[in-house]
């Protein structure tokens, strides 16, 4: 976990960043030089990633609860903004709907509500798990994967960089868990400020997820980031900082 506290500032805002699949709190590293002086930032590693132990159970419920426990160890002061990237957006929504955390705003970045079809091959038994290992747990596999998604990104950024030192057992269990993500209608009663942000070149499943969330929240802002794919924090850092820290 990375924590940058701000003490005794009446105008402070607490930002809680939740990273996505196959990553850790370093997802938000590009934003660090741009964090406002009145902000405190809490960046937990989701269970099984980074410095966090694997969850007791590989379920949405357990992972959400254990992530909330990590956050609540700290002195979380309101107002609170949740910044959920990829799968982290789902966990942020789960914390809100389960009343594990109270927030004033949520920034949803390139959400994955609908499981991407192109990842289903990795879940086809032993053959699928072998395909996962060959694709994301080898240097050659990651190189080829980057080539395959070149049309979905706007720069030479390495979309598989976080998989170089990830716990692949955890990443694979998360992949299985992502097939159990609830229908977006589950979150319809969340009534706080919402920004839904996605890259213009992002994957179809992300675009579909973003549109579905916008449908249930008429008050939500939907923002398309030009010259960005699935990692807008890395691809359009300054623009993303303005949107998040506004």
pLDDT average, as an integer? 90
Quickly name the level 1 CATH class: Alpha Beta
Low-confidence stretches: none
Would you identify the CATH architecture?
3-Layer(aba) Sandwich
Oligomer: single chain
Strand residues, percent: 15-25%
Give the number of DSSP strands: 7
Radius of gyration: 17 Å
CATH superfamily, by name, is: Alpha/Beta hydrolase fold, catalytic domain
Main β sheet profile? 7 strands, mixed
Distance between the termini: 24 Å
**How many separate helices?**
8
Number of domains: 1
- Order of strands in the sheet with the most strands? 1-3-2-4-5-6-7
The class by helix and strand makeup works out as: alpha/beta
Outline type: globular
Element-by-element helix/strand order = EEEHEHEHHHEHEHH
Helical coverage, percent range? 25-40%
Q: Might you state the CATH topology name?
A: Rossmann fold
Keywords:
246 residues, 7-stranded mixed β-sheet, Rossmann fold, single chain, alpha/beta
Structure explained in plain terms:
The protein is α/β, with parallel strands linked by helices. The chain has a single domain, classed as Rossmann fold. The chain is 33% helix and 15% strand. It is built from 8 helices and 7 strands. The protein has helices at 60-72, 87-97, 125-136, 139-148, 168-177, 204-216, 232-235, 237-244; strands spanning 2-4, 13-18, 39-43, 80-85, 105-109, 193-199, 221-225. The chain has a 7-stranded mixed sheet with strand order 1-3-2-4-5-6-7, with helices on both faces.
């Amino acid at each position: 976990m990375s924590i940058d506290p701000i003490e005794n500032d009446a105008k402070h805002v607490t930002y809680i960043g939740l990273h996505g699949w196959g990553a850790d709190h370093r997802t938000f590293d590009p934003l660090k030089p741009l964090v406002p002086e009145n902000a405190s930032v809490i960046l937990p590693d989701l269970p099984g990633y980074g410095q966090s132990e694997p969850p007791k159970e590989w379920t949405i419920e357990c992972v959400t609860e254990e992530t909330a426990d990590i956050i609540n160890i700290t002195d979380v002061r309101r107002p609170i903004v949740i910044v959920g990237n990829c799968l982290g957006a789902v966990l942020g929504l789960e914390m809100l709907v389960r009343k594990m955390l109270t927030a004033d705003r949520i920034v949803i970045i390139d959400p994955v509500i609908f499981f991407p079809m192109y990842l289903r091959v990795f879940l086809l038994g032993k053959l699928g798990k072998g395909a996962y290992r060959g694709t994301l747990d080898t240097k050659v596999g990651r190189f080829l994967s980057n080539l395959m998604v070149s049309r979905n990104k706007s720069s030479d950024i390495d979309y598989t960089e976080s998989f170089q030192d990830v716990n692949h057992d955890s990443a694979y269990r998360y992949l299985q868990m992502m097939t159990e993500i609830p229908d977006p209608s589950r979150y319809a009663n969340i009534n706080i400020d919402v920004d839904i942000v996605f890259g213009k070149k992002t994957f179809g499943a992300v675009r579909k997820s973003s549109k579905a969330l916008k449908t249930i929240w008429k008050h939500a802002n939907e923002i398309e980031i030009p010259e960005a794919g699935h990692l807008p924090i890395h691809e359009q850092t300054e623009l993303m900082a303005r949107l998040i820290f506004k």
